[in-house]
Design brief:
This protein has 99 residues and is mainly alpha-helical. The chain is built from six helices and no strands. Helix 1 packs across helix 2. The longest helix is centred in the first third of the chain and has 20 residues.
């Protein structure tokens, strides 16, 4: 409905929720779309978007030494080992541009 121009109030009325709740639902739907498109969770996407290093260098390193790349990535703020391995899988699949 939002992509067709409906307001959050109209969406909320249709769903029997408030306009602010309709906005939250919409924002989460956008996050899910981003996760599905990137093939990794939102936390991993955020970490990659904030990564200040060169993704091409990180990808090369990940292909040579995935555990070393994991160690490097978990030094990033809020990066857990599972996020690091999601990022490494994404990079070794050939992705080099930030999602």
């Amino acid at each position: 409905m939002r992509e067709e121009g409906a307001t959050f109030q109209a969406i909320g009325d249709a769903l029997h929720v408030s306009a602010s709740r309709a906005n939250v639902i919409y924002q989460r739907a956008l996050e899910i779309q981003a996760e599905e498109a990137a093939g990794m969770g939102l936390a991993a996407i955020r970490i990659l978007r904030n990564y200040r290093g060169d993704l091409h260098e990180l990808a090369s390193f990940a292909e040579r030494d995935p555990h070393g790349a994991c160690t490097l990535l978990i030094q990033e703020p809020n990066c857990l080992r599972r996020h690091a391995y999601q990022i490494i899988a994404w990079l070794t699949a050939g992705n080099r541009e930030k999602p």
